[in-house]
């Protein structure tokens, strides 16, 4: 007899009480297995509840089966001669009796829990990426020097409810850097807890969360308010021994920040080695002003929902209440960046670093890398952020900013902006609802033509917050990348009444990332509405359209856009026409180039009135008109073969005072002119040497809106010079990545494709060559 047959026969011969006991024992074992699986795979509580419901439903079925089997055996033993099929008396119908056999019940149990397993597996495959670590990395190793501060419970006035999550930030900052201690990134921790939930009075559950983030220590506590006075109590636990606290702390008073200092010092005293001299010198890490901190938290809440204007205003209040508030300046800079206010983003970053002395070493390191990023010192910023994530692998902010650096500056060095995918995936691994990381990944998917990935990411973004500030650009990329003209026209018609800020994002994303040139031109046309907008907005729209038309070989239509600009702004029209005739591959008669050189030299930059528009899309050229005049005159001279004049203009450029926060733009454009002069003389090596002088210290947002700050002609020339010198691999990197920063780069893509086709042929890759020729 098989083992399963012996087991079934044994159960048949048991009394109802014995069967009930066996079932209860089996159910208990099953629930333990489910609990282990739930913990291992971070399953929500509803899956354990489903398993329990199945067990409860199965209990009466098993008892009924045992009862029927007992009656049948009793009759057989009494010699009634009645067969199983004929014992039909009683309330149980023959059909039910035929079903209620031990084999059927066992098979049904297996089927039910197989179904439970399928549901769980499906959920695991479709849920957000795990929070234990980045995709493919796995759980972090638990370290005794890492501490996780969990949200505190708060009792009393609703005015203090924010301290529940606020303690995660405040106390985490205080503990970070004390001796060997490092705190888990509060952003990643709060995101996990918001989604999964952790009871405030359950150390065991808290220990499991801490372990997921590699923390060997964790802090729990509560805040009690009464009569405007606060009582703060906290306990420090070891993750592997949460039954008793390693240290306890308490403080009472009216000022939350002073209480946090007291609590941190008491907790650190319980850690081996004590708090140390450095910890005793810790002052209020972020601010000594409680109202400023409240404003800061309001800004953070608004930023998480992508309400950038509200966030910007809240951070402005925070720095007004505490003019030394470094971290508020930092977040003010980030909010300004998303609002396309480049000048304010740079100024706030400088203020943040200036007042960083009160921060921990870790946060000063973050602000130092951030200042380098805002100054356009891209390699230094990348090194800084990589150093932070190397030491603090859960630092979501450092991962995000590393992604920003790679995303926006890589093309300046012949690298793909898609390298930013990995850092942004790290962000989503710790914080799956981070919309900022999603926006960047959506752009990468659109650029690469991965339409299914684009759709998935866009739907995920819109599900989180369909009313977010960047919903318009996300929907634009999702629709325009599909290439459906009917859907495109419908979407853009619905966007006709958006603000110039939102339309600049729609036009830029549509023009640059979707590669749907005709649709991008329609998006840019929304900016040319003379009934709604101002001249600088019209010029931006006409310029974007002209760049795209050049890329489609429609020179006559591009020049019609120039003529439209000339009806209200001859200065801007002359600049635009000159640049279009300098685009590689665009045919230009010598008489046209001579005329443009004369007209450019005659421009009067002092006659141009400032626009007053805060967005870099519309004000980027305001303090650069003389720089642009000299550069275009020199470039036209080089194109005409007048190398000496080009070098003279380069010298004049270097003598011009660079604009505020302008980085190395005057120096770099002068280097570009010297390179053009060498190229005009047939000196390929000298031309490349001239480009090697370029520093490219420029805030990336300027390069997005200005072909001069973005050095688009120089980047194209570097690729072709490398090709001529036989350095094919390097040349490919420069030419492949044109077009992924600003709209003006789009005009370079046909010429870049021709050179790439030649390169791939020379490198023995005919399929790639054919793609580029196409």
| Proportion of strand residues | 5-15%
Note the overall shape. Answer: globular
Q: Determine the mean pLDDT.
A: 84
What's the total helix number?
38
Outline the secondary-structure elements:
Elements: H1 3-12, H2 16-41, H3 45-77, H4 94-99, H5 102-126, E1 143-149, E2 153-155, H6 163-175, E3 182-183, H7 186-196, H8 203-212, E4 215-226, E5 229-238, E6 247-253, H9 256-269, H10 276-280, H11 290-304, H12 308-321, H13 326-338, H14 342-354, H15 361-374, H16 378-391, H17 396-409, H18 421-430, H19 435-448, H20 451-464, H21 471-480, H22 485-494, H23 500-512, H24 517-525, H25 535-551, H26 555-566, H27 570-582, H28 590-601, H29 616-619, H30 625-639, H31 643-655, H32 665-680, H33 684-692, H34 700-705, H35 712-724, H36 728-736, H37 749-762, H38 766-773
Helix pairs in contact: 2-3, 3-5, 6-9, 11-12, 12-13, 13-14, 14-15, 15-16, 16-17, 17-18, 18-19, 19-20, 20-21, 21-22, 21-23, 23-24, 23-25, 24-25, 25-26, 25-27, 26-27, 27-28, 27-30, 28-30, 30-31, 30-32, 31-32, 32-33, 33-35, 35-36, 36-37, 37-38
């Amino acid at each position: 007899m098989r083992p399963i047959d012996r087991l079934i026969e044994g159960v048949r011969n048991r009394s109802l009480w014995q069967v009930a006991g066996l079932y209860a024992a089996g159910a208990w074992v099953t629930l333990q297995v489910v609990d282990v699986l739930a913990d291992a795979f971070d399953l929500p509580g509803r899956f354990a509840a489903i398993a329990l419901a199945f067990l409860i439903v199965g209990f009466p079925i098993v008892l009924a089966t045992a009862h029927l089997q007992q009656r049948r055996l009793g009759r057989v033993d009494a010699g009634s001669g009645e067969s199983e099929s004929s014992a039909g008396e009683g309330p149980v119908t023959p059909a039910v009796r035929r079903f209620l056999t031990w084999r059927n019940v066992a098979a049904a149990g297996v089927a039910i829990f197989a179904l439970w397993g399928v549901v769980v597996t499906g959920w695991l495959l479709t849920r957000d990426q795990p929070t234990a670590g980045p995709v493919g990395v796995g759980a972090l190793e638990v370290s005794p020097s890492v501490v996780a501060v969990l949200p505190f419970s708060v009792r009393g006035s609703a005015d203090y409810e924010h301290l529940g999550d606020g303690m995660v930030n405040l106390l985490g900052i205080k503990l970070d850097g004390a001796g060997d201690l490092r705190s888990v990134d509060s952003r990643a921790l709060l995101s996990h807890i918001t989604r999964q939930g952790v009871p405030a009075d359950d150390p065991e559950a808290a220990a499991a969360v801490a372990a997921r983030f590699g923390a060997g220590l964790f802090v729990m506590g509560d805040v009690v308010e009464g009569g405007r006075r606060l009582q703060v109590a906290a306990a420090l636990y070891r993750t592997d021994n949460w039954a008793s606290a390693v240290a306890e702390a308490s403080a009472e008073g009216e000022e939350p920040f002073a209480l946090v200092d007291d609590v941190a010092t008491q907790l650190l005293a319980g850690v081996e080695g004590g708090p140390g001299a450095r910890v005793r010198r810790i002052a209020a890490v972020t601010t000594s002003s409680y109202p400023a901190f409240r404003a800061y938290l309001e800004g953070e809440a608004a930023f998480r929902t992508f309400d950038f204007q509200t966030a910007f205003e809240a951070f402005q209040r925070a720095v007004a209440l505490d003019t030394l508030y470094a971290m508020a300046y930092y977040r003010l800079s980030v909010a300004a960046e998303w609002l396309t206010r480049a000048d304010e983003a740079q100024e706030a970053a400088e203020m943040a670093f200036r007042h960083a002395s009160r921060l921990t070493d870790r946060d000063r390191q973050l602000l130092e890398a951030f200042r380098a990023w805002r100054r356009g010192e891209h390699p230094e910023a990348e090194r800084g952020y990589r150093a932070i994530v190397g030491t603090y692998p859960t630092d979501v902010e450092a991962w995000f900013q590393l992604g920003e650096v790679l995303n926006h500056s890589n093309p300046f060095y012949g690298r793909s902006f898609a390298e930013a995918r990995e850092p942004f995936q790290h962000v989503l691994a710790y914080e799956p609802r981070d919309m900022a990381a999603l926006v960047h990944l959506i752009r990468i998917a659109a650029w690469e033509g991965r339409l299914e990935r684009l759709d998935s990411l866009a739907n995920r973004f819109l599900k989180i917050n369909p009313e977010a500030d960047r919903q318009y650009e996300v929907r634009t990329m999702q629709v325009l990348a599909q290439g459906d003209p009917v859907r495109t026209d419908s979407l853009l018609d619905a966007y006709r009444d958006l603000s110039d800020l939102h339309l600049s994002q729609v036009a830029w994303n549509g023009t640059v990332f979707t590669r749907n040139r005709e649709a991008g031109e329609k998006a840019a046309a929304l900016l040319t509405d003379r009934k709604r907008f101002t001249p600088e907005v019209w010029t931006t729209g006409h310029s974007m359209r002209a760049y795209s038309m050049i890329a489609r070989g429609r020179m006559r239509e591009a020049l019609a856009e120039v003529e439209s600009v000339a009806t209200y702004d001859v200065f801007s029209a002359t600049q635009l026409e000159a640049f279009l005739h300098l685009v590689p591959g665009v045919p230009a008669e010598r008489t046209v180039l001579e005329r443009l050189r004369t007209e450019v030299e005659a421009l009067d930059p002092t006659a141009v009135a400032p626009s007053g528009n805060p967005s870099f899309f519309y004000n980027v050229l305001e303090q650069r008109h003389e720089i642009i005049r000299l550069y275009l005159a020199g470039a036209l001279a080089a194109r005409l073969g007048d190398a000496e004049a080009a070098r003279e203009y380069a010298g004049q450029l270097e003598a011009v005072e660079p604009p505020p926060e302008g980085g190395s733009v005057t120096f770099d454009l002068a280097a570009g002119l010297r390179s053009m002069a060498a190229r005009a003389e047939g000196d390929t090596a000298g031309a490349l040497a001239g480009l090697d002088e370029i520093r490219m210290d420029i805030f990336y947002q300027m390069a997005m809106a200005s072909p001069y700050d973005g050095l688009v002609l120089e980047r194209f020339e570097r690729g072709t010079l490398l090709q001529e010198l036989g350095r094919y691999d390097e040349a490919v990197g420069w030419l492949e990545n044109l077009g992924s920063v600003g709209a003006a780069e789009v005009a370079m893509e046909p010429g870049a494709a021709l050179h790439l086709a030649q390169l791939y042929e020379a490198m023995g890759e005919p399929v790639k060559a054919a793609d580029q020729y196409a």
